[in-house]
Specification:
Blueprint (H helix, E strand, L loop, with lengths): L2 H5 L4 H22 L4 E3 L2 E3 L3 E4 L6 E4 L4 H30 L2 H33 L6 E3 L1 H21 L11
Antiparallel strand pairs: 1-2, 1-5, 2-3, 3-4
Helix pairs in contact: 2-3, 2-5, 3-4, 4-5
Length: 173
Amino acid sequence: MSAEEEGMLVRPFKLVALLCAFIALALNVAALLSPAWVTSERDSLSLWKACRQPPEDWQCVSTLQSDWQVATLVLILTSATITLLSFLMSLISLCLGTYKSYYRVAALLLFAAVVLQVCALILYPIKFIDSSLLKSYHEFNWGYGLGWGSAIFMLGAAILYCLRTDVYDDAYY
């Protein structure tokens, strides 16, 4: 195989990692925009607003008044930004064929994004229960679950970017 052909060789793990990074980014955006992180019978809480349903109509107020909710939002927004940067870096390096130099950086960025995302997802329920915003039975809903799904896909992409599939010897096969 010539050097020109080797530069254009696409590794399947890198393609799967790119797909995982894209899915993680999409799940992260969906989690950020989700109206339901915590729900109860007459209440709904998201990252942006808290809504209550008295006997007549829904009334919503901003949740950006408490420090822990702002911290959670900043951590998740930072994680989404880092994931976007990593995805774009991976996509550009895949298109240009310079995969070796940029995939390690993309993996490190994704590991950092996972740490931020997990910190936010652990902080949110601890501080929510501590502040006890909803006095009734409540459930962590699909928006919170999308955040965990995003973290899992970020971790998977980071691990796949770290795999060295270009150093296998044919003697082992």
